[in-house]
Amino acid sequence: MRLSLVVPVYNEKENLPLLAEAVHKALDPLNLSWEIILVDDGSKDESMQVLEELAASDSDHARVIVLRRNFGQTAAIAAGIDHAQGEIIVLLDADLQNDPADIPSMLEKIEEGYDVVSGWRIHRKDTFITRTLPSKIANGLISMVTGVHLHDYGCTLKAYRREVITGFRLYGEMHRFIPVYADSVGARIVEMPVHHHARKYGKAKYGLERTLKVILDLFTVTFLNRYANKPIYLFGGAGVLLILPSTLLLLYLFVRRVWFGTSVLASPLFQMSTMMFILGFQSILMGLIAELLARTYHESQNKPTYTVREMINLPANSSQQEQ
Fold first, then answer.
1. Which of 138, 153, 195, 241 is deepest in the core (most CB within 10 A)?
2. In what order do the strands lie in the sheet with 62-66?
3. Confidence bin at 321 (pLDDT 50/70/90)
4. Which domain, by its residues, includes 161?
5. CA-based torsion, 198, 199, 203, 209: positive or negative
6. Sign of the torsion formed by the C-alpha atoms of 224, 229, 234 and 235
7. How far apart are CA 231 and CA 293, in angstroms?
8. Percent of the chain at pLDDT above 70?
9. Are residues 183 and 39 in the same domain?
10. Helix (H, G, I), strand (E, B) or coil at 159
11. What is the C-alpha to C-alpha distance for residues 172 and 319, in angstroms, rounded to an integer?
């Protein structure tokens, strides 16, 4: 299989037939093998019946996964990726705001050597106050914190080489952070403008409350991306930042007591410096424990601490030595 489209579905009964038609119109002329994986995320309308009809009428391409309840968009995307067979995986919304006609251009970018092609909705057709403005703020914040500069993290329409999006699990609202994970394994990322249409049928599933979830997930992604392999850098660094000033304060109190006869306990600085020293020491110990956990994680699952882009004149399993 060359291409897999992963489409999370939640209450999109009117849009699904139009989506299937648009996908065929975009991909049939390309003469490649493809599949579309439609993941029903606990829809409460008749989306399931429509999906069954699509699967029956287009058994060569349509695959349907039905989740037991509504787990959220990220979980639905993860389910689709887990069952995708394509060398290239494209994520796509079911509401037809993303245009399947942009997929061929994305595939061309992949053929140029990029590992991730991220859609950028330059002319976005959403409500400015409740959706566009919060999205712009979140995009700027994510780009600044992660160092992966994209204009539109929230655009679901993205194309990936399979190898750069395997090896990690998605939780919360973390599907929008997939480019950050891909960047951490050395993926080549490019952004391209894509079309965006106003929603015809159904209601938008997200509002302002989603921005808070994205910001909270950003803390998790930043930690995993920067410190998952060396957590001592975070905890140990925080410990040192606490111990150094506390040591200087204690030294100051000692000098003041010896030379000026001022009681150490007469100032709240003693309690503050002592507490900072204890917290700093505990932080370093937490970093050491986290180091042990990180090593257990990698070694118990035989996970390497590096990723290989390609090998020349080496067999594919050369890294596995016989015992």
1. 153
2. 62-66, 34-40, 3-9, 88-91, 158-161, 116-120, 189-193
3. very low
4. 3-227
5. negative
6. positive
7. 9
8. 89
9. yes
10. strand
11. 34
In this structure, the answer to whether residues 181 and 262 fall within a common structural domain is no
Q: What are the pLDDT digits (tens) for 80-102?
A: 999 999 999 999 999 899 999 99
pLDDT tens column, 166-196: 777 777 778 888 999 898 888 999 999 999 8
* Identity of the amino acid at 78: A
Both 254 and 106 in one domain: the answer is no
Q: Give the H/E segment covering residue 240.
A: helix 232-260
**How many domains, in total, are found in the chain?**
2
Average pLDDT, the chain: 85
Is 21 in the same domain as 133?
yes
32 pLDDT above the threshold of 90: yes
41: its two tokens: 């995320």
